[in-house]
Amino acid sequence: MSDPLLIYGATGYSGGLMVEGALARGLRPIVAGRDETKVRGLAERLGLEPRVARLADTAALDAALRGVRVVLHSAGPYYETATPMVEACLRAGAHYLDIAGEIPVIEALARRHAEARRRGVMIMPSVGFDVVPTDCLAAHVAARLPGARRLVLAISGLRFTSRASAKTAFQHAFDGVRVRRGGQVVLVPWGELHRAFDYGDGPRESIACTWGDVGTAWYTTGIPDVAVYFEATAPLRMLELAGRYFGWFLRTPLWQVWLKAHADALPEGPTEEERGAKGMVVIAEVEDVHGRRVQSRLRTPEAYAVTGVTGPAVAARVLGGDF
Ligand SMILES: NC(=O)c1ccc[n+]([C@@H]2O[C@H](COP(=O)([O-])OP(=O)(O)OC[C@H]3O[C@@H](n4cnc5c(N)ncnc54)[C@H](OP(=O)(O)O)[C@@H]3O)[C@@H](O)[C@H]2O)c1
Q1: Shortest-distance Cα residue to atom 25 of ligand 1
Q2: Which residues sit with their C-beta closer than 6 Å to ligand 1?
Q3: What pLDDT does residue 261 have?
Q4: Tell me, what's the pLDDT at 221?
Q5: What's the number of domains the chain is made of?
Q6: Which atom of ligand 1 is nearest to 80's Cα?
Q7: Cα–chain-centroid distance for residue 149?
Q8: 95 forms bridges with which residues in the sheet?
Q9: How far apart are CA 271 and CA 263, in angstroms?
Q10: How far is the CA of 148 from the centre of ligand 1 (A)?
């Protein structure tokens, strides 16, 4: 007997990790996706119920969501996949969760909040590494300094990326860096925001990057100025240089095709051994109008290992009525 939890995109790298994570919690999710052979193969291997539907096929998607209370949507890129699944969840009266880190998608989903409430369901994007640990830490420091006006997050230890995450990043990486100012998401040029953070062994230079918390932290904390930094590793410095001097060129359709083809040649994601390797450090700092600052630091496992745990954990809480 399946639980009324459907993981769509279960045949993908992160979907697979979240199916494993759900099983480890004693859940029996329905596994779903668009490719019948892959979905049935996965379901057979794990003894789970398969459901197959293309996102563009409304009738098939409605049939796939029959009896489902929570959808954990793990098929990205979300700028292509979020809308049809949210529409289907609203029609079906099912809660919608995803692991999107794309700020325009998060903003578009936030605009559906009132409609979701009317239908008695929740829309909650970004239940993966981006943004669960950072969002929890942001909420923690915001509670320590009520009235804070500025939130800065910093992340160290991101060494691996899945093929799909790289493709999603290339889509917007060369526009500039998205930050929130006065409650609005704005673009600043690459290279404008640098700062040192102590991740545990002295100050490390860090570079502001586009990351999902710029979308979500506003809804969690109400703090109007948000920026997210990453430790300045050699690949990140290269990305920054590319964005700064060749951004206009790398945004052209021909280069986008080339970059995405290059991403296709990457491994699907970190191996089990890599996921078990050194973890991440996350810092959250808030500041109020008087210049008072509060900072907290959190250590987590490797990012994809976190996603495999947090997605199913949030789904389990929603299934249990906590929404
Ligand atoms: N928030 C976070 O921390 C976090 C962590 C990991 C990943 N992500 C995001 O999650 C998404 C998936 O990542 P991944 O590493 O799992 O990618 P992946 O291994 O390439 O898997 C993508 C999955 O999505 C499905 N899919 C793609 N486009 C689709 C469409 N138009 N209709 C239906 N299904 C579609 C694929 O189906 P087929 O197998 O049929 O192609 C596959 O099952 C990406 O957007 C990534 O950026 C976020």
Answers
A1: 75
A2: 9, 11-15, 33-35, 38, 55, 74-78, 80-81, 99, 101, 126, 128-130, 162-165, 168, 268-269, 307
A3: 80
A4: 98
A5: 2
A6: 31
A7: 24
A8: 70
A9: 17
A10: 36
3-class state of residue 86 by DSSP: helix
Across the range 73-94, mean pLDDT stands at: 96
Contact 247, 212 (CB under 8 A): no
In a domain, 156, yes or no: yes
Q: What pLDDT, in 10s, does the model give residues 144-185?
A: 999 999 999 999 998 877 777 777 777 777 889 999 999 999
CA end-to-end span of the chain: 24
CATH number, position 106: 3.40.50.720
Tell me the best of 14, 87, 213 to mutate to test the pocket of ligand 1, counting ligand atoms within 8 Å of each CB and taking the most: 14
What range does the domain containing 107 cover? 5-125
Q: Which of 126, 162, 260, 314 to mutate to test the pocket of ligand 1 (most atoms within 8 A of CB)?
A: 162
- Tokens read off for 36: 């019948």
